């Protein structure tokens, strides 16, 4: 059977797994409660700042942490994530299985570490990705840098139109647009008007439910 896109390039958090609300934000609250009790962000604010200006400015500019303090928070988060596995969204497994069944590729480009991405896929019974670009990559190779997409196209001899980036946040959009790769917004993680408005206006495709993405890809 034919494939609409030879390679699905998936974000991880809040695209494949429901992790911000159940893992990352609770970790942030726990850490700031212990070490930065003057910092108070709601879950919606945490989502919005991750959307724009992004995770590093969130900690350094919004929260006012030094670079060393941000790295300390990162270490705290690493330990927290070891013991908290987010659940995949219903319907994601079927999409990934069908992509592989039809001979397509699954790539992951994420601000999470590859070891946790692989663990989350395994724990949720998802087919293993063909290639992963995680937070352990050099800073200049992380999204919104287009490096991961360029490397995927080089390694698998693909053209931009043969890829589809699926992401819930602006860094993924910026990465895709930098090299003219089609971009689909994953809108199922939250109902924040600012994010949804931007994504609906600027994305090539917008999907509010996982099932909508599945129909678009395979029907």
What is the topological layout?
Elements: E1 7-10, E2 17-18, H1 20-35, H2 43-51, H3 55-62, H4 67-82, E3 87-88, H5 92-101, E4 105-109, H6 114-123, E5 131-133, H7 147-156, E6 163-167, H8 170-178, E7 183-186, H9 193-202, E8 205-207, H10 210-218
Parallel strand pairs: 1-4, 1-6, 4-5, 6-7, 7-8
Antiparallel strand pairs: 2-3
Helix pairs in contact: 1-4, 2-3, 5-10
Order of strands across the widest beta sheet?
5-4-1-6-7-8
The second-level CATH architecture of the largest domain is 3-Layer(aba) Sandwich
The tally of helices reads: 10
From N to C, what is the helix and strand string?
EEHHHHEHEHEHEHEHEH
Percent in strands: 5-15%
Structural class: alpha/beta
Sheet with the most strands?
Answer: 6 strands, parallel
- Name of the CATH homologous superfamily of the largest domain: HAD superfamily/HAD-like
How many β-strands, per DSSP? 8
Mean residue pLDDT: 95
CATH class of the largest domain: Alpha Beta
Tell me, briefly, the overall form. Answer: globular
What Rg is obtained from the alpha carbons, in whole angstroms?
Answer: 17 Å
Helix content: 40-55%
Give an overview of the whole structure.
The protein is globular and about 55 Å long. The strands form 2 sheets. The protein has a 6-stranded parallel sheet with strand order 5-4-1-6-7-8, sandwiched between helices. The protein has a two-stranded antiparallel ribbon with strand order 2-3. It contains 10 helices and 8 strands. Helix content is 49%, strand content 13%. The model has no long low-confidence stretch (mean pLDDT 95). It folds into 2 domains: 7-18 and 89-218, 3-Layer(aba) Sandwich (Rossmann fold), CATH 3.40.50.1000; 20-82. The chain starts with 6 loop residues before the first strand and ends with a helix. It is an alpha/beta fold and 219 residues long.
